[in-house]
Amino acid sequence: MSNLTKSLMAVTASAAVGFGSFAGATAPAEAAGLRCSTTRLSTPCSKQNARQITTYVKYGSKGKSVKHLQRALSQVGYRVSDTGYFGPATRTQLKKYQASRKLSAVGSVNSSTLHALRVGAGAKRVSVKKASTARSAVTSSYSSSSSKGTRAVSFAYSQIGKPYRYGATGPSSYDCSGLTGAAWRSAGKSIPRTSHAQLGGLKRVSKSSLKPGDIVGFYGGGHVGIYVGNGYIIHAPRTGQNVKKVPMSQMRFYSAVRPA
To answer: How many angstroms separate the CA atoms of 114 and 97, rounded?
Structure first.
């Protein structure tokens, strides 16, 4: 079952090819860690393979696969701490997710739930024309600053697992400000290159008013990361480590800025 804990990978709406288009229900990136035996990500999980996963991801279980589930739920709006323990909070949010997708709200990971998480299946199947209209509406909304922040956050999630390298700005490796700069470039906004220049040249915001996409500085401004909500950032830590999501509280806060 080693496939259950494979490295994080970005999952886009294209993963749903072969299953039709679903409005407003793209697959959360963390669901990539919930792999079905040896099946490809774009292949529906058989009930047998889903039962194998349920053996490891069920009420009372612990581990990396549970963290993948918790993070995937948070990415689709059902917030739960990624503790790695499948307790009451995780079961409650999983039931809410299942109900929203018109699935049986059983509070456990069955084949239909796993399929929905992995390929982004939603509650209502729509025509290709309607799905295209929905995508156009979403694209137009990116003109707002909050949507740009969301795009920056989505990019940051997709880079998790890539190595830190001093002076790197992507796409295969990053230093801390290289990651924040690349995230905002993906949202259509060019920002200064270094951490000090970013923190000194962009609009300052307070720690209490942080929004997803804001750049948070630590240790006197020598390190930065992308705020992703709920007290977490995604950052490129240092040589020998990979891009990852961590609590802000792990580092000494300095300041925060909002690029747009």
So the answer is: 11
